[in-house]
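Why run this: before we spend reagent on co-expression, it is cheaper to look at a predicted model of the complex and decide which construct boundaries make sense. The entries below are exactly what would go into the expression plan.
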Amino acid sequence: MAQKTKLIDVSKCTGCRGCQLACKQWNQQPAAQTENYGTYQNPPDLQSNTWTLIRFQEIADKDSVKWLFRKDGCMHCTDAACVKVCPSGALHYTEYGTVAINNERCIGCKECVSACPFDIPRYDRVTDKIYKCDLCLTRIQAALEPACVKACPTGALKFGDRADMLKLAYKRAAELGGNANVYGDKFVDGTHVLYVLQEKPSTYEKLPANPSVPLSIIAWKDLLKPLSLLAAGGVIAGSFLHYIIHGPKLPDEDQNHKGGE
Amino acid sequence: MRKGLIQATDAFERIVHWSLAISCLILCITGLGMMFQSFNFIGTIMGGLKSLKYVHNFTGLFFMATLYFTIRMWWKEAGVFSMPEDMEWMMCAGGYLWHVDKVPEVGKYNPGQKAFFLVVAGCGVMMAITGLIMWFPLSFPTELVRWMFVLHALGFVTIFAFFFVHLYLGTIGSPGSLDAMLSGWVTRAWLKKQHPKWLKEMEHEGKLVVYGEEKTSTGGHGH
Ligand code: HEM
Ligand code: SF4
Ligand code: SF4
Ligand code: SF4
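The model came back. C-alpha cells follow.
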C-alpha cells in the first residue's frame, strides 16, 4: 500500500479552525469548558479530546506584528518513539505508514506520553487511556481524505501519496522563497505529516527544531531489552552447566540424614 | 523435627524472606508481561494487561515494605564484608567453580550471599524509586521519566540474573539449604560445610539452638 501523507502549508492557513472542528465532529469528541488566557488559541493546548489544534502566535515583523498559525497534532513518524515504548501494542503502524491507536488495548501507562518527541499523546483520567490523532484511519480505508483536509477552505491542507506530497511541498517552499522550508522529511526517518513553514522551525512555539527518538528510549528498547534475554539465557544455561559439570555443594558427612524435611 | 538439628533462622526472618521472594517473582513475571509484547498473554489470566499493570504496581508497594524489613534485618550480617577472610573466599570463588582443598571459613552469610544481598538492597531501592516515578510520569519532568525506564529495565536485568542463581544455589545447587528457608532447622553437617565460622561462634557464645537440647539463650535480631 502506498504511504500516505498530509501536507500542512502554514502560509495558506487563515486560522479559521475549520479543521479543528471537523476533527471533533468526525471523531465525536465533545468540547470542554475552556478558558481565556489572552490569545485566540483555543483550547490552550492539545487535549485528550482535542487531537489537532491551531496554535496562534504573534511575532515582531519590522514595525508591525505578524500572525503565525500552525496546525499541531500527531506527526505520524516512520520511526515512532510512541510505538517503540507501547507495552500493549495499542499504538501501531498502519499499512499507510501512519500511526494508529487501538484504544481497547491501551492500559493507560502513559509511556508514550513521555516518549513522544513532539509531545502529542494526551491522557484522559476518566477512561484511564491516552488519545491522539490517527489521521482518520477509517476514512483513509474508505478512500476518503482525513476530516481536517476535507474541511479546509483555503487549500492549506492536502492529502495524498507520500511521494506526491513531498514534491508538492518542495515546490511550494521554493515558490515562497526566503526562509520557507519543508519540515518533516529529515528526522525520525520521515513523518507522514509534512509542513511547509515560512519561518525557521525554531520560530514556531512547541515545534522541536531537531526532533529525534530520545537516546534513553534507544538504550532501553534496543539495548537493554535484548540484553535481558541474553542475561536470562546466560544464568539459566550457566546454572545447568554448573550442576552437570561441577556438581552441587554437599555437606562432607551425614549425607544420608539430611533431616528437616 | 529431628534431634540435633540446629535453628538457623527464626520465623520472622522466614516470613520476610518469603514475602520478598514471592513479591519479587510476581514483579518479574508481570514486568515481563509489559516488557515483551509476546508475553502480553500473562495479563490474560489477571483479566487483561491493564489489571496486570495494577498487579505490578501494587505488588511493588508490598515489595517496598518488605524490602525495608529485609534491609533492617540482614544489614549487619549480610551488608558488611569482613576482611580478609571474605576476600580469600572470593579469590577461590567459594569453591563453587573449581576444586578448592580448603575454602576459607565463612560466617552466617558468605561473600556471594552478601553480594547478592547488596544487589537486591541496592537495585530494590532503585526499582522502588524509578517505579514510583514511572507510575506517575506526568508529575515529573519528561527527561527524568525517560531515564527512569532505562534504570528500571537495568535493575530488572540485574535482579533477574542474581535471583535465578540464588534460586539454584538455594535449592539443588546446595542441597540442605532450602531447610533454612522452610523450617529454619538445618543439619550440623550442612552448617559445617556452609557456615563453619558462624557455627563455631554460636557454639562458643553458647547461643546455638539445638533441637532436643535445652537452649541457653536466644539468638534473635532485636525485633
Ligand atoms: C523486583 C522489583 C521489580 C522488578 C523486577 C520490576 C520489573 C519491571 C519490568 C520488567 C517492567 C517492564 C519495563 C519495560 O517495559 O522495560 C516494569 C515496569 C514497571 N514497573 Fe516494575 N519492577 C519491580 C519493582 C517495581 C516497583 C517497586 C514499582 C513501584 C511501585 C514498579 C513500578 C513499575 C511501573 C510503573 C512500570 C511501568 C509500567 C506501568 O506503568 O505499570 N516496579 N517493572
Ligand atoms: S508524533 Fe508522537 S504520537 Fe505521533 S507518531 Fe510520532 S511519536 Fe507517536
Ligand atoms: S498509554 Fe496506552 S497507548 Fe500509550 S504506551 Fe501505554 S498502553 Fe500504549
Ligand atoms: S481549516 Fe485550513 S485554513 Fe482553517 S485553520 Fe485549519 S488548516 Fe488553517
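The pocket of protoporphyrin IX containing FE (ligand 1) is lined by residues A 87, 109; B 24, 27-28, 31-32, 34-35, 53, 56-57, 60-61, 63-64, 127-128, 131-132, 134-135, 152-153, 156, 159 (CB under 6 Å). Chain B has one domain: 7-94+102-186. Bring this page to Monday's planning discussion.
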